[in-house]
Amino acid sequence: MSHVSTATDTGLWCAYRQLTAGAVHTDLTHAFHPGQPHFPALPDEQRETVFDMARGDGFTVDRYTLVGQWGTHVDPPSHFHQGATTLDRIPVEEMFLPLVVLDIGARVATDPDATPTLDDIADWEDRHGAIPAGSFVALRTGWSSRWPDQQAMVNRDPAGVSHTPGWSAEVLRHLLETVGVTAVGHEQLDTDPGIATSVGDFSLESYVLGRGRWQIELLAHLDRVPEAGALVLASWPKPRGGSGFPARVVALHREP
């Protein structure tokens, strides 16, 4: 007698139940809104309610006017490099990945200019094993706790220099060229530390995107996920030729 499939063993449903049973879903996304922190050169969001049930319309429809790099958002290679991969051409296979969390929050608490080192990578691998190729590596700094205060996020000194954490060239080279990670993410506004962006230096972001990788900026709640063992789902709309867009990012993990 041939096997008759049921709703309990069809396709990947069984694997889904096994994967999600007892798992925690952590939203790594800030809800965006007008007046929120953003890169100073970009305009603020504007909203208009086109149809409104409160006015007697049969439904509610809002018009959103915003730049692609708004709130928790994705940067594809085309954000910095003309002719490079745009949002609609990032493979969907890259949107569900192992999540690695590199934590430098303790250093950032006393030094807002802190960046990760190769020693941080070595320490992580001593605890958890090798960083997997094809993973998403997120930099945990604690900076998202400053949201939604624009001045706290930018953290300028009296001379106008921004003091915020960021990535380092040595760590990004290791992750992209040696490990072969698929994407990176961070809590602050920029890939580069504030002392670099204050003088117009965005070389680290240019490097990441120039290597054909994508990144997520302004992640939230990285303190709620473990350093290793989680999965991340990062998704966004599909504008043709898009150079950036707000993203929804969720981690699936066991209790830390």
Structural description of this entry:
The chain has 256 residues and is of the alpha/beta class. It is built from 7 helices and 11 strands. Strands 1-11-9-5-6-7-8-4-10 form a 9-stranded mixed beta sheet, with helices on one face. A two-stranded antiparallel ribbon has the order 2-3. The longest helix has 11 residues, at 118-128. The mean pLDDT is 96. It comes from Streptomyces bohaiensis. InterPro entries: KFase/CYL, KFase_sf. It holds the Pfam family Cyclase.
Quick check: average pLDDT?
96
Strand content: 15-25%
Count of extended strands = 11
Question: What is the overall silhouette?
Answer: globular
How many strands, which pairing sense, and closed or not: the largest β-sheet? 9 strands, mixed
Give the oligomer, counting copies of the same chain as homo and different chains as hetero.
single chain
Elements, N to C (H/E)? HEEEEEHHEHHEHHEEEE
Feature tags:
11 strands, 7 helices, 256 residues
Q: How would you summarize this macromolecular structure in one to three sentences?
A:
This protein has 256 residues and is of the alpha/beta class.
Topology of this protein?
Elements: H1 13-20, E1 24-27, E2 46-51, E3 61-65, E4 73-75, E5 96-103, H2 105-110, H3 118-128, E6 136-140, H4 150-154, H5 169-179, E7 183-186, H6 194-197, H7 203-210, E8 214-217, E9 230-235, E10 245-246, E11 248-253
Parallel strand pairs: 5-6, 6-7, 7-8
Antiparallel strand pairs: 1-11, 2-3, 4-8, 4-10, 5-9, 9-11
